[in-house]
Amino acid sequence: MAAGMCVYLMIRRKKTTIFTDAKETTNVSELKKIIQGITKIAPDNQRLFKDDRIMEDNRCLADYGLISTTARAQSPASLSLTYRMENGEFEAIDITPLSSPPELPDVMKGQEAAHDTSAN
């Protein structure tokens, strides 16, 4: 059963984030075909990275530690994606940081404090 376990992935490039799932035994080349279905960029023009290491097409996701216990739906594993530029070189990894939620308004902070003291 372990061979068919799902891994959940968050693939990021610049401001784009792709969420997908695959099997632990999925080859990187197969994952690139999934990405092609979304981005319309040919697999040959994609490069995937796990922790700044280039992922090789013939390796499976489990080879990079992407297994069901580390890449869960609640906390998908993060991969970086780059594309080949017109000059044949691949672009550098460029990921726009995710935005943070705004700070809790003072009105709501007051309610939390009032709720905490009334509980005593």
TrEMBL record:
PROSITE patterns named among the record's database cross-references: UBIQUITIN_2
Keyword Transcription: yes
InterPro entries: ELOB, Ubiquitin-like_dom, Ubiquitin-like_domsf
Record keywords, A-Z: Acetylation, Nucleus, Phosphoprotein, Transcription, Transcription regulation, Ubl conjugation pathway
Region (Disordered): 95-120
Matching CDD domains: Ubl_ElonginB
Pathway linked to the protein: Protein modification; protein ubiquitination
SUPFAM superfamilies from the UniProt entry: Ubiquitin-like (SSF54236)
Coiled coil regions in record: none
GO-annotated biological processes: transcription elongation by RNA polymerase II
Domain Ubiquitin-like: 5-66
Lineage top rank: taxon: Eukaryota
GO cellular component terms listed in the entry, alphabetical order: elongin complex; VCB complex
Subcellular location: Nucleus
Keyword NADP: no
Family: Belongs to the Elongin B family.
Function summary: SIII, also known as elongin, is a general transcription elongation factor that increases the RNA polymerase II transcription elongation past template-encoded arresting sites. Subunit A is transcriptionally active and its transcription activity is strongly enhanced by binding to the dimeric complex of the SIII regulatory subunits B and C (elongin BC complex).
Assembly with partners or alone: Heterotrimer of an A (ELOA, ELOA2 or ELOA3P), ELOB and ELOC subunit. The elongin BC complex interacts with EPOP; leading to recruit the elongin BC complex to Polycomb group (PcG) target genes, thereby restricting excessive activity of the PRC2/EED-EZH2 complex.
Protein name: Elongin-B
Species per Swiss-Prot/TrEMBL record: Daphnia barbata
